[in-house]
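Re: Re: ligand-bound prediction request (bumping)

Still looking for help on this. To restate: I need the protein modeled with magnesium ion bound, output as structure tokens. Inputs repeated here so nobody has to scroll up.
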Amino acid sequence: MSTPQRQYVLKVCVVGDGAVGKTSLIIRYTEGHFRESYIMTVGTSFAVKELNFGDTLVRLQLWDLAGQPHFSSVRPVFYRGAAGVILVFDVTRRQTFENIPGWYDEVAQVTGAVTSVLLANKVDLVDQRQVSTEEAIAYAQQLGWGYFETSAKEGHGVTDAFRQIAWTCVS
Ligand code: GDP
Ligand code: MG
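Reply:
Sorry for the wait, this slipped through. Here it is.
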């Protein structure tokens, strides 16, 4: 195999309320499986994935931040140096969508304007849905963000979402 001509290391933060599926999305993307039981992320965790785009190699560092409010004093440290942010809400809990602007502001206070994608997660739970595709897309478009509907459980949309943010950050 030939050596890639361009190589990047990108820090991307994954944010959103507790239990929206941040850790599950990262595990689905980096390890290819899903876990039903909920284990709260304490503090922060970190995963790395390498992606190829033709002759470009991207080492994506995914920072998974605990969403629980009592960790908010430490979170700004983890935003520093981020090239992008993945904002995740849970389509079955409307409040997690309403809280997205607060999450973006918290990140942008540290990073300035930053490449963003919005992920509507748990779309497999069709009957429990509280935020429509149309509403979420309109919101993302208004801010110039990418938008993906994902299911960490079924794997739907996950690879596309992570690849898009990586590609947008390097191009
Ligand atoms: P985090 O707090 O944002 O990191 O959320 P977790 O990844 O720990 O997920 C919270 C709960 O939601 C867990 O019980 C997961 O199994 C579940 N979950 C995560 N993603 C999905 C999904 O796409 N569909 C369904 N049905 N459940 C999910
Ligand atoms: Mg977590």
